[in-house]
Amino acid sequence: MENRVLRYFLAVVAEGNISAAAKLLHITQPTLSRQIKDLEEELSVKLFNRKGKYLELTSEGRYLASKARDIIDLVDKTTSNITHKEIFGEVHIGMAESSSIKPIAKAIKVLRKEHNQIIFDTFSGNAEQILEKINDGVIDFGVIIEPINKINYDSISLNRTDVWGILTTHDSEFKDMDKMSAESIINKPLIISRQQGVKKMILNELDLEDAQLNIVAKYNLLYNASIMVEECVGHALCLGGIVNTYNTSLKFIPFQQDITSKLSVVWKKEKPLSVPAQLFLNQLKDILNSEK
Question: Where does the HTH lysR-type domain lie (predicted)?
Fold first, then answer.
């Protein structure tokens, strides 16, 4: 499975048909069709189903597309870091949603002033998604919300904590509350984070049983959950400060128990960092040390 063929495959995925992809790639349609057919034969799977003029990915095709993007990204990043003698390249960072990532932004700003050919590629996700990409070598660093098992990673704390509570609406049953008690959320419709360990932590902190939580939905990114809250699907159990509630129908109410989580920056143990990634890490450590 060559990188060139994976790029052809992704072009077909993006364009939706062979002729448009062939034109984009500046190759003939029969050549591209042959390459895709050879790829299917190599993998012994069908990657596309035809729907009229367009091609639709099979389940195997969707899986390959997700992995192919990661593979191509890793190849391009590695090639860039090896072949260029100047300090330039990309630093890839996966970040949990948090209002406490300012040190990350500061480090990026300072490093860009000194080395303006370094580019930062970031994406938002939960801890499981971020750690998976670190393990696969697709990203350099992850900014994750505790609790998480970090046994296979090096890490530094961002010296900040986020507060847990409930995101609700101003006209909900909680409208007159300034703090949320454990009893107040029992059997209420809740939207919770998909991150492993969050539910267990909340149950432990609030001294509740699993059966006492009425979970109606789970979220990966809080913005999507906030829309469900606005539509009265349920109340989102989340960190404060992520979604802007000013002049909106939304209201964040922290727990009485003062439940907090720290943020950490993690990277793979014993994995050599590229020069741009190491420079970023050094700059971030300097900023964190200056704040102590």
Answer: 1-58
